[in-house]
């Protein structure tokens, strides 16, 4: 039996098989079959080719550079600084004008600090003391401003005091203004120059049109003027869904998105930037222990006697992050090389034959990088 089975299996290897088709004379089955075929065809034509433009080649490796420049002045009158005019050099940090910039809108100033000994702030838990033994000499105050000297300083008739520290004295003030000092920053303007390039298609463009200089000095961005890259800070915050004066008190972070989705089969004028704005920090500041956005910096000077002093500034403000993304799409090689009248011309430009006496008689296909989308646009 085993030999017979193996013999039959061996002989079956030489059998010829062919498919058999059964034609069902049934209208319902036939209609359903054609509906399925038409649905697949409609999906390929309508969704893949028309909506998603599957016939196009895409480039998502967008190269971008951003340059920002702010304009505006503000006036303040405080007990620490007196009357003062603030310009771009004072409230913009950093001054280079990159894709991330900070605009100061509120501040706490502690003037005339010098390195000496003074009592630590009563708001620092680690600085509270009842006796000198609570202030070990040389120990840094946790979350404080200096190093303990070993003395516990008390007011008269007070049981509890604070440790004496070696630090920049007097220590930083804790009282914050109830209204933003630079409230007028709402009317400041920022010029955002964005240059982009799709390296695959050698296509470059900017968000600034080649217009006269007077236009840029007077225009403001709007949906009617998409190529005016000058924005009011108040409008940016408003478009992000926030109130500028409220945000200016504690600070925050705003995102400015520039989207370049370009169909390079069309004219270059059809490749336009699209802007959107969003708030990136915690909107619900009242529910957050550490809300807003702030940091510290100091300005140093030396008096006639050679003693170093500084003015400490705790700056509150709005950080703006400019983010650029997008993609470019262009006819793929299948269309250029086979489906148009000039296909022989484009094949000749794309492939180059190299005759050689070596074994390699034909080089690999190389792309002629001299053809740009603009040059290939007249199909």
Structural overview:
It is built from eight helices and 16 strands. With 379 residues, the protein is of the alpha+beta class. The model is unreliable at 358-379 (pLDDT under 50). Helices cover 20% and strands 35% of the residues.
Descriptive terms for the model:
379 residues; alpha+beta; ten-stranded mixed sheet; four-stranded antiparallel sheet; 16 strands; disordered C terminus
Summary of the model, kept short:
With 379 residues, the chain is α+β, with helices and mostly antiparallel strands. It has helices at residues 2-12, 27-51, 88-91, 213-218, 233-239, 244-250, 333-338, 343-350; strands spanning 56-59, 63-71, 74-78, 82-86, 92-93, 100-119, 128-129, 147-153, 161-169, 189-198, 203-206, 230-232, 252-263, 274-279, 294-302, 308-331.
Report the total helices.
8
First CA to last CA: what distance?
A: 72 Å
Approximate strand percentage: 25-35%
Alpha-beta content class: alpha+beta
- Show unreliable segments: 358-379
What portion of residues is helical?
10-25%
Give the number of DSSP strands: 16
Taking all Cα atoms into account, the compactness measure Rg is 36 Å
Given the C-alpha coordinates, what overall shape results?
Answer: elongated
